[in-house]
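It is worth pausing here to work through a concrete case rather than discussing structure prediction in the abstract. The textbook approach is simple: state the sequence, then state the predicted structure, then interpret. We follow exactly that order.
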Amino acid sequence: MPDGAALIGIDWGTTSFRAYRIAADGVLETRTAPAGILKVADGDFEAVLEREVGAWLGAAPALPVVVSGMITSRQGWLEVPYCACPAGSVELAHALGALTTRGGRRLHFVPGVSLLGGDGVPDVIRGEETQIIGQLAGGRGAAVLVLPGTHSKWALVAEGRIVWFATFMTGELFAVLREHSILGRLMAGAAPDAAAFARGLAYAREGPGGLLKRLFSVRTLGLFDQLPASALASYLSGLLIGSELVEALACLPQPPDAQEITVIGDSALAERYRGAIEAAGFQARTGDGDAGARGLLLIARAAGLVPGAEPQALRSGP
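Step two, the predicted structure:
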């Protein structure tokens, strides 16, 4: 294309669709829509693709298209088998799936990543691997990253590859406890309460027992008026995120390098994670907002779909 676009990259998750036109040195244009795979009528993913980025596809018939996220899962358009850990852009590129649309467009699908733990229990990520690879951006050495969400992901990366990761169902547990348990009965309002959140973090780190024992404090602090109803959701959030942090650090094969942890995300939830990490005595580094786009470009280059060396940085478009 005249503006130097080298790739159309798509992050297609459970609830949202995000597409990028990517040049060698940056994201030229981004489009988002609430068109996750669970919202696609009759599984007609091609119709959604044409609706959202048909103009891009039509203007650049030869431009490669790389897709990641839950669209590559069993519930998505094309199920791509997981790539075993350790995995970087080269391993993911070798494991790409592909299909040709009814309109004749060739699409390339990024696999998720799997890990068989020392306990014999498997874990998986699908979609986050692209963000992690993009955050590495050719970097070397070891680093710890966390991607907050419904199912929060912690990852250890080394020499440009994901070497370990773990999933924590923190966000989903918060929703279930708030909406479907006795803990939510006393809660009122959704405004954040920083002091209550900090109290939850502290109790997660220092309280007696484990999470199952500490959870009931959400109710008793409300019953005895030690926290107002408007603060209980924030307290529960702090308790769960703080517990996740304790568990994740205990699971890590090696401690964070230089006591630094990178948080990928720019949401209010990501900000709470940064606060939790700093409260635990670590430095919280903010990840790149365009990590997902960079990861798609790195994988496309490793697959030979896009020429050039690995990008060291991407600039955001208008």
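Step three, interpretation. Residues 311-318 have pLDDT under 50 and may be disordered. Residues 232-251 form the longest helix (20 residues).
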